[in-house]
Amino acid sequence: MHKTSGQIRAIKKIDTTDLSPREVAHEIAIMRFLRHENVVRCYDVFLEGQYVHVVMDMFNGGDLVDGLNVHRRAHGRLPSRQLRNLASQMSQAIAHVHALQIIHRDVKGENFLSDRPNIGDPAVKVGDRSSGVKW
What we know:
Blueprint: E1 9-15, H1 21-33, E2 42-48, E3 51-57, H2 64-75, H3 80-99, E4 102-104, E5 112-114, E6 124-126, E7 132-134
Antiparallel strand pairs: 1-3, 2-3, 4-7, 5-6
Binding site for ATP: 12, 110-111
Pfam family, one: Pkinase
Protein name: Protein kinase domain-containing protein
């Protein structure tokens, strides 16, 4: 639970052993800079030894690929309307990142997170920004 907000949050633990201090600072700056309804929000960042801990939105639905696979096994293919909704949310997230002159170099389903296991009507957010670079 996040101390300030009282909300349940996730903490992503990043090993900085193979990163330079400049790379770590760059990643933290990008995480704090991005604010959009389809981008996972970074609430806080703290260092502990060789690890950076990122306090961020909690997602109980897992990633998009897992959600689509679960849906396909239980209900068959996702209808076109729902696929368009997912694609729209994904496109809006990447468009926002690009509008800020940041390139997300690892756009894939595993890096989009769903707020619920029911992939039929989720809110989807891009979550992994560790490969973002400013142009």
